[in-house]
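Chain X:
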Amino acid sequence: MPPSTSTPVDPLKSPGHPPRNGFDRFFKISERGSTVGRELRGGLATFFAMAYIIVLNPIILGSGTDKFGHHLDNAQLVTATALMAGLSTVLMGVMGNVPIAIAAGLGINAVVSLQLAPKMSWPDAMGMVVLAGLVLMLLVASGLRQRVMDAIPNGLRRAIAIGIGLFISLIGLVDAGFVTRNPDAAHTTVPMGLGQGGQLAGWPVLVFVIGLVLMFMLIVRKTKGAILIGMVTMAVFAIVINAIADIPDAAWGLAVPNVPDQIVGAPDFGLIGQISLFGGFREVGLLTGCLFVFTVLLSGFFDAMGTIIGVGEEAGLLDNETGNLPGMGRILMVDGIAVAGGGFGSASANTCFVESTAGVGEGARTGLANLMTGGLFLLALVFTPLATVVPSQAATPALVVVGFLIMASNVRDIDWADFTVGIPAFLTMISMPFTYSITNGIGIGVLAYILLRTATGHFRKIPWLLNAVGLCFLVYFLLNPIEQLLGVG
């Protein structure tokens, strides 16, 4: 027999069937060529691909200190992270009907912990996250979100994402003790070095190194849930090492890997609602406060948009003519609600997770998958004792891995041959980790782009929204001499 010339039919992309019942009709399960079993399996896969955030987010936020020397409680952060992820993910499933899960965004939590909190109280910092979410909702409702996104050149958007990836990678290296700051008393021109005195010392750092190697090995083998598997494995390894070796508790940092007294426990909701909407402006002033809100907004702005489109394309849900998901307005509105909700819960801004593609790969095509993912996050609330014994050295390898994945997916899309794009992109990328500030990176990149485009005679092609943003950043960087000139510093 001659070989068949017919094209195999993908059952997930074949024409849908009539709905079987109201539940099927609401989620469009049959219409999108899926089944309840496939949706639940996809939701389970997504949860295991992103469950690491329950441990990682508390470590990032817990490592920060506010202006008054206060730390956030680790157990309360675990509760806040799981609760807000669960509620946001379920809301996206019901309102947006897409298999896109939501949780505390990596990079945004670093902004909150390392930029906002040191200049104000924790409630003030979380209040600014809520304000960013409210602004985002207004942008969606007015249709300005797409216009603001269009105002930022693609190369600069990619560079912002890469800079955040490099920044959180550096945070992972520092929090693990792999990289440490050289004391100022040494009068050295080298600000940071390897381990202690140029050498890696101690079991905790070894846990980090082994964990990093393990995660990368799992990544290159395309193992599903690689980050979570690596984190759990190293947490168990750390508990064993801590039990047999004489390791001071202080060497581990925030969480000491001891066998927990209990596996389940009542969640602590003490951080929920602990916000001050406008208190941060009293601490840093109106301009700096607005720029902080803008930074939180921008940190998750493009990442969420790219994730939504990327996951939608992977699932075959994009409209062929517009390139958007059906119901994009509702999806973006939920994203804004998630940002504000994350701040309200003191879990930092919540955003869409690209790990949702793990569920799509298992067949998820509707919001029903989110009910499974969100439900598992809510179930995790009673397992807080397990999460609080994972040391940073077992979790921070994930920051380095995620930093690589962010860079790998964005760097090739920057037009390096166009120096008016390449130079601002480069400055954005290096400024974030080198100045330990995402705000500075964005501002330097925007100003460099405006100046270089102007120098090449293309000022009129720069969107006015971008010029307005650049003016705000110019005042931000020159705030000290302006205050001295006016005699108000």
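Chain Y:
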Amino acid sequence: MSQLAPGGPPTHRPVAVLVGVPGAGKSTVGRVLARALGVSFRDTDRDVEQIAGKSVSDIFVDEGEDHFRRLERAAVAAALLEHDGVLALGGGAILDAGTRALLADQRVIWLRVDVPAAAKRVGLARNRPLLAMNPRAHLRELMAARAPLYAEVATDTIEASHRSVSEIVDQLHTSLSRTNR
């Protein structure tokens, strides 16, 4: 899946880029899908944490959301160039128009979930700064605001609310195997 960039070093294209709200299952599904496909998994939130030397929550508290979004934008751009496995983006990465433009030629899968499923998965949201207060109400707001952006970048949408990880991965594995031949 390597591609040669005109006048530059080889670039890679992820097999799949997973997007969705917090609690959609991007990291969980991504890890299992990567294993099933025999490729590596990468999470841009982890990349940001490594660069900053602190958790996403601490970045939000110490430097604010704008600073986090700048780090996230750079992490997504780097991962799209460097990574050829399964890539999970942070839930708000699609808020950036530049990031959405970078996703235009990628295989982007929107893991769509409803509020009850996402709320159950995020629990008390200890490590999710945007959901710390009243997770259900905030998830509902995030979903309403971000759904059009997820739809804009998605090449595929998987309803993940009431399906097991293995069911989702099986569907994705079949779909990706068919299109990557």
